[in-house]
Task: structure prediction
Amino acid sequence: MRELFWVFLLSAVPIVEQRGAIPLGFFYGYNPLLIFIVGFLGSLLPVPFILLLFNTIYNWLKKNPRFEKVVVLIDSKISKNKGKIEKYKEISLIAFVAIPLPTTGLWTGSAIAAFLGLDFKKSFICVAIGGILSALIITSICMFFPTFFNVRIVLDALFV
Result:
């Protein structure tokens, strides 16, 4: 049961999110439906905070020269994906979050929605739908192609 807690927490971590947490749940041998639910809920945990606080924190970071590298990183990620989402807002946000690739998860989708000033409720629903789709894709890949996300290889590489 402690492993499920780690799946939950790991899915809330930026960059890693569901892409790392769901395969970890399979590595531990849990039921795919349980992994799907825990991974999705964990990844959803930071979304309201990002939607509500992103612009305040971002503006504070911009004023502080010590965080220049972080601001440049955020600017590049947002400007890279801003145009894709601005045009078709809700559908684009869902699709963007649903694609299980690095920097396309719930964290980035929420930050872009906040940056663009999209409605909180709509943004939360769109990000959640995208998160469900992403979790479904990752869970399916882990079920049907178990070597695709080989957690053992990653763990061995990290702890060698």
